[in-house]
Amino acid sequence: MPIKHHSAEKVDLLPVHKFSFHNTTTQPEEDSSVAERMRRLQDQYDETGMRRSVDAVILVHDHGVPCVLTTQIANDFFKLPGGYLDPSEDEETGLIRHLDDLLGAGTKQWRAEGPHWNIHCLLAVWYRPNFDGFFYPYKPAHVSQPKECKKIYLVTMPEQMVGVPLNMKLLAIPIHEFYDNTQRYGPQLSAIPHMLSR
Q: What is the pLDDT of residues 74-93, one digit of tens each?
C-alpha cells in the first residue's frame, strides 16, 4: 500500500494500557559520537549519494491525552523510532523494518501475527544540507545536494506487545509537551504539534 502524502482521515488512538511492554536485547548504537556519525555520513555520501532516513510519530493516548511514543537514551536524549534506509529500499518497507527491529516483540508468534504498524501519511520532510548535525524543515535554496533527507510519518499501532531495548526507555510524551520546547527535545520533536495540526 503506497503511503499517502496528505490525509484528512480520522485516526483512532488506542490508550497506552492496551499495550503490553517487555524488555528485549540491547539496541546497539552505530556511532559513539556526533563526529563519528558525521564521518560515516560522509563516507556513505561518497559511496551512494544523499542518505535517506525515516522516522515515525507513533500516536497513542494516556487518560484521553494524545501522546507520542519516543525512545530515550542515556536519560536525556529523545528520539523518534526509525532509522536509515538502504539505498534501494522504499520508505514504507524501511520504516516497518526499523519499527520491527526497535519495538518488535521479537518472538516467532509476534512476527507471524502482523501487521503491527499502521502507516498513515507523510507529516514532514527535513534536510541536512551539510556534514553536520543541523536539519531544516525545507531544502535551503542555496543547497543543490543535501547530504540527508529525513521523512517523518504518522503511525498508529493495533493492540499488541511492544519490545523495549534494554538500554532505552520508551516514553509516551503528551503532544503539548513538545510545543516550543526545542531546548529539551530539539527542533524536529518540538515541531510535532505543528506537523499534526495540518
A: 777 899 999 999 989 999 99
